């Protein structure tokens, strides 16, 4: 009930009771204080990794500036040798990928010659469930198109194919959700499931693992993917031909390479990773990895391992747990899928920071596999596998420091004795030691050879001119990736926990 308040001017004023007004004021103060604390906390969390990386560069440059010439030479040769090793290992992987690439092309030619009749009869194929994992607010503009594509374009016996849409959303999105469920009512090959209480891709997949789908193989796809119409069939052929295969990882191809120069470089990078590095590493070290999308799992194995929702890159974590369990992973270049690259630097930065932090999480958790014995009877990890895992989990993470320390060393030299000409710069950088030139040239030759092989395995969306640009800018890209790796480490040290989904357009 309003009270009548007297004022000095003699006029009566209506007002709220003093107790209620005090309570509202206190509540407003509490809300403001909470907002201030939360904003400050978020700001500290956002800026702490940046300040840590900035301090790392400043401290490193200062150390080299005060180091004597003998120490500088030692640092230089250590960094040059290690970077040469990494470049050499990369080119060996590239050369070993030539065989799988040739075999894949021959397999396609053979099937095409027979009118696309595959070796395994339809009746003998395993039952396949293609899973689309979607965070609906982020992918509401593309999900209907992707579902329609999978239902109508994928070439696989319909009595052995199911498409399952697993989506989560913090708020209802209509009429889209109703449209999705209406599609499932009219198509026996489609299941649409809104995963309750889900906050991540891992939650969606773990919910799927509780279902009795009746399928032998479960293929995991992010929502932005278009599997090649014959991609699933090639994967199932791999399972049919080798009963010991537990996971088939396909090749992911960027199809918006023409959008910007950045997407063009990402497209080349993906060709280098999926068509060269992954099959080459499998041939070199004897193991493969599930990479998050366009991966086919035997359903019992997926249900056994599931996904860890506490990991930023739950796919890499599950891949390494599969390795620890002795799973056999095959990389098949004919199991192709087309996806979107981020179209803005902000989206790319957030995506790669999440990947880099997720990789260090997974590396810390699973590096023990390098020296521990397999706990699975009959699954032995040989020395080659252990060294490959060491390169993947430890040397790869250390390479971020090798690249950036190399950069800091050069910057300190330039600051202390700024070169007056290009020849002066070369003398400062290489100390006039012939071995430095040889190591440098070996690294350059390794890089060019790797990209030459990439050129011959490039996808149809990568134009020939993109490879030379990628080659020229590759040193800059190495520094960029190394800096993102450092940010990932800094985020992990500072317990950064935010998750940023990649925008889909």
From TrEMBL:
**Which GO molecular function terms does the record list?**
glycosyltransferase activity
For the keyword Transferase, the answer is yes
Q: Provide the alphabetized UniProt keywords.
A: Glycosyltransferase, Membrane, Transferase, Transmembrane, Transmembrane helix
User: Where does this protein chiefly localize?
Assistant: membrane
- Residue ranges annotated as transmembrane are 47-67, 74-96, 398-418, 430-453, 465-488
Extract the Pfam families matched here. Glyco_trans_2_3
Give the Basic and acidic residues compositional bias ranges.
Answer: 1-17
Topology relative to the lipid bilayer, per the entry, is: Multi-pass membrane protein
Gene Ontology, cellular component aspect: membrane
Domain Glycosyltransferase 2-like residue range list: 238-441
Instruction: Specify the domain of life of the species encoding this protein.
Output: Eukaryota
Region (Disordered) location: 1-23
Which Gene3D superfamilies does this one have? Spore Coat Polysaccharide Biosynthesis Protein SpsA, Chain A
Localization, UniProt: Membrane
User: What PANTHER family has UniProt attached to this entry?
Assistant: CELLULOSE SYNTHASE CATALYTIC SUBUNIT A [UDP-FORMING]
Name listed for the protein in its UniProt record? Glycosyltransferase family 2 protein
Per the UniProt entry, what species is this protein from, by scientific name?
A: Coleophoma crateriformis
